[in-house]
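If you are new to this repository, start here. Below is one unmodified record pulled from the training split, so you can see the exact layout before writing a loader.
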Amino acid sequence: MGRQAQHTFALPDGTEVRYSLTERPGGFRVRFVGPDGTRVEKATGCRTKGEARQAATDIITATYRPVLPAEPSHATWDTVLAELDQTPDLRPESIRSYRTAVNELRKVLPPAVVGPGT
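And here is the target side for that same chain:
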């Protein structure tokens, strides 16, 4: 059976994250289970356990912070198709398939939709 976590930290949404601090030659490291269920170990950059506990809560909060979606692009379909040709590592058949899909999509969308972000 694995070791039990030494500390518990409550996130703003009420989720409790159990974590442990491990002393390594470069300073303390924090270990906990991340939001995707995988074990995470990160350096706190601290040499004392008190400082490491505060740094650990900051690291855990940052790890669990939701990722906001990127701002939508206001590119037109013609711009998207032009950039498609510049995309590295796409086979010619893939480019042809994507072009066909975009052109078919443009046929069924209303004229007001001038690009993927509109």
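Two things worth knowing about this chain: Residues 92-108 form the longest helix (17 residues). The chain has two domains: 7-64, 70-118.
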